[in-house]
Fold:
Amino acid sequence: MTQEKSDQARIVAEQFQKIWLSDTSGFDELVGKMTDPSFVVRGEATINLVNRAVMTTDTFSSTIPKAVP
Amino acid sequence: MINAACGNGFNSVYLAAQGYRVFGFDVAPSAIARSKELASRVGVRGEIFTCADHSALQAYAKQSADVVCALGFMRYLKTDIRDAVYRQVARIPKPNGCFIVSNDNDLFNMFSLNNESLAFWNDLIIGFSDVEQLLEGKSLKAILEENTKLPQRQYSQRSVSRHIKKYSANPLTCGEVMRPYGFRLDKVVYPDAHLLPPFVEALVNRDALEVMKETTCLHRAENDWRSMLMGFEFLSFLRRS
Structure:
């Protein structure tokens, strides 16, 4: 691995380590949106995360079988 | 489902709680700590989460999952690592299994109307032909910068991208790019459009804009061609051939 590569990977890891120390957003908003499509998600970053999750979940649930318990 | 760069795990935990078998990994220990906390709160097993970088994909067996999901992940990977990740991911889905991947959208640079727009047009023009030879020794980039006044891109406090070089992709060619890896493109969607160019967004009421965005983006995400330009990110839904 070159120095440049390792720097990029290290910086990304450090930045996300800081972000996820306190960011617990997403779950309640996703539940809200999946339960009621008119539920309004707030926060620029959260809107993006939840919209991605809604679209992924919709596709997922329409095409992939659930695990057998 | 395997969720690469699962972050605080909210999507994985939601799907696991719905009855799907999910595994998530993330390079940040804090992400895995948040994921396990959430799993515990919702009654999902915390062991589904592991702290690891992209090399974790090597551990998954061939044709072992229905879906591999990589959201907000590829933009931080250099070209050679992206290639390695795509090769690894291609092994994992079952036949007709799905790879859902997000990439930053090259075409958004047309809409953003900032310094990155000039870089986009420069790369597009000089990549298309040798026309720069006609500019008598001046670079096209210099001419564009001299004659076009556009603001510098502003980064949010939270942005990881301001610290590193980011990698983007073109939604119009992503199907072609992924074909050699054994994927065929089902659809492309744009989950989060900017309703205004970012420097104009800064001039309007933030709360009102957020509400408008939230109520607009999902409706426009799939079937409105304008999202292709206004979305800073796109999701590709790919099937294993």
Chain A has one domain: 3-63. Chain A touches chain B through 47 residues (CB under 8 Å). Residues 3-22 of chain A form the longest helix (20 residues). The helical segments of chain A are 3-22, 27-35, 44-63.
